[in-house]
């Protein structure tokens, strides 16, 4: 890095961190006022903890916007002081001048992806716990929220769980089907409550139904408690009661493979799987889009015009991105196409604009 690169880098980090702090403050303040209106008599400590656990997700969503704002304001500042003219005269192209910014944005994207993959799932679980226990005062909904008819297949058995708590150690509404090698139903077990301790499952208030060729009617036996040993442990089931934002990339991949093997539709989860990576690099795409709009407007509207351009580009990208995700979740586009198409198209548009600029 030469002196010009270091100068540009420090300018970018100043605008990036300042923009991120401003956006985070505004978003949190507006959302907090809405939360206090909707949920009255909430302890200040509960509200504080709720937003502390919300920050990783909020920051992850704001990183692309802050990257774009930092890029536009950095180059606009150089342009307004005629420093860009001097750099162009020395033989540096606009892309070369922007290289330190692009390197910073790539670093932010990689760091943001890693942090979100490790922090957001854990923080989301804690945030939801506070939401249903302290804010909504509905703790009974915490164990059943985002769970509905979980199906698993293991060798010659298929089982269904109606609801699973967030820790994956208690379940309700279990139905198990056991088949022979010819896939004839030989046994069915139902249970209202299940306590899961690894591969050891304790079933409560259920029934065992046996199907045999020697009897015209199935034989049913009721039980209060029954212990069974399962091939699946609680680690496999933990992700079943969660949405994609509550799972890491590895957990989501395992969840998709598990449900695919059971013959279930996993399209929505596959879209989320690819979207986790593609959105991490949204800041780089927005940065490339912002570069062509950062020069040539030193005195025709100034900083406010550039901020307006920033907001317009953000809106255009998010509309395109959310449309692609929706089409993917409905099966109109393949998951990887739906997740990566907005980034690819917007990157091509940015490169075309940069080429036409001829700087």
From TrEMBL:
Spans traversing the lipid bilayer: 12-30, 50-73, 94-115, 277-296, 303-321, 333-354
Pfam families: LptF_LptG (PF03739)
Species this chain originates from: Bdellovibrio bacteriovorus
PANTHER family: PERMEASE, YJGP_YJGQ FAMILY, SLR0882 PROTEIN-RELATED
Entry protein name: LPS export ABC transporter permease LptG
GO cellular component: ATP-binding cassette (ABC) transporter complex
Keywords (A to Z) from UniProt: Cell membrane, Membrane, Transmembrane, Transmembrane helix
Cited InterPro entries: LptG, LptG/LptF_permease
